[in-house]
Write a structure and sequence with these properties.
Elements: E1 2-6, H1 13-24, E2 30-33, H2 44-52, E3 57-59, H3 63-68, H4 79-91, H5 94-101, E4 106-108, E5 113-115, H6 130-136, E6 145-146, E7 153-159, E8 162-170, E9 176-177, E10 189-193, E11 206-212, E12 217-223, H7 227-237, H8 241-249
Parallel strand pairs: 1-2, 2-3, 5-6, 6-10
Antiparallel strand pairs: 1-11, 4-5, 7-8, 7-10, 9-12, 11-12
Helix pairs in contact: 7-8
The protein binds zinc ion.
The site of zinc ion has 7 residues, from loops.
């Protein structure tokens, strides 16, 4: 199976459309979405409509999705994120609200595991360090683990199969061959495809990933999109100016 992997779309329809059309060229059999579909950006309903229509979709919610449906305290967020959560609450359709209410922040399928942040704390913890990866390994049954939340394309795996040595890296568009256990199943590896709608690694192109479960490979792609168009929509919606500016800087 070939999966298109997306995360942290954040209501950015132009970025979402760009990555979906890029990934569709690979004859994707199914889709993985690691949460934070809404928040920050100006098109929550259009993004949810596109994502809900994806075939064989495995999807979880993130902290912004939960805040929009009033299941996470606003104190958790900075002033810009909070303003966007409040704006999104007033914009979200009843149908899309019901969809978000049906999502969990962690999901295990026969082919992989999803957690927005980490398996240990899927709503709040950012998976950024080798130690965090090691601590979360016992909590996962089905590898690989796909995460989002940090908005950065990242890989964690054990180096040379040694559970004391973790290989952790930013991912560019090189195809990674993921580790396997002796019986042929997938060994521990955590993958973040980066953020579709608000990249934070100083590269302002939308990020996404492609997972081939038969070959055991994962590859990140960066896709240019109409940033100025999204910035104009953010301003027209009355969302904070900072949310428009940061898109151009990829931060
Ligand atoms: Zn996010």
């Amino acid at each position: 199976m070939i999966y298109g992997v997306i995360s942290d779309v954040h209501s950015n329809l132009e970025a979402l459309s760009a990555v979906l059309s890029h990934l569709e060229d690979f004859e994707v059999d199914g889709w993985i979405c690691c949460g934070d579909i809404v928040g920050y950006g100006p098109d929550p309903n259009a993004c949810l409509d596109r994502i809900r229509a994806l075939k064989n979709l495995s999807v979880i919610c993130g902290n912004h999705d939960l805040a929009v449906i009033e299941r996470l305290e606003l104190d958790w967020f900075n002033q810009y994120a909070r303003a966007a959560v409040l704006w999104t609450r007033g914009t979200l359709s009843a149908e899309n609200r019901v969809f978000l209410e049906g999502l969990t922040a962690r999901l295990e399928t026969p082919d992989f595991t999803l957690a927005h942040g980490t398996p240990r704390n899927p709503v709040e913890e950012y998976l950024l360090s080798p130690l965090q990866f090691r601590d979360n390994v016992p909590l996962v049954n089905k590898w690989p683990l796909f995460v989002g939340h940090s908005h950065m394309p990242l890989l964690f795996r054990f180096a040379d199969g040694d559970p004391e040595k973790v290989d952790s890296r930013f991912l560019d568009d090189t195809e990674e061959t993921l580790p396997k256990i002796s019986g042929g199943g997938m060994a521990p590896a955590a993958l973040n495809p980066g953020s579709v709608g608000q990249p934070r690694d100083q590269d302002n192109r939308a990020a996404c990933g492609l997972y081939d479960s038969s070959k055991g490979t994962f590859r990140v792609f960066r896709v240019p999109y109409d940033i100025a168009g999204v910035q104009a929509k953010i301003r027209a919606a009355g969302l904070p100016e900072y949310l428009a500016l940061r898109l151009a800087f990829g931060q």
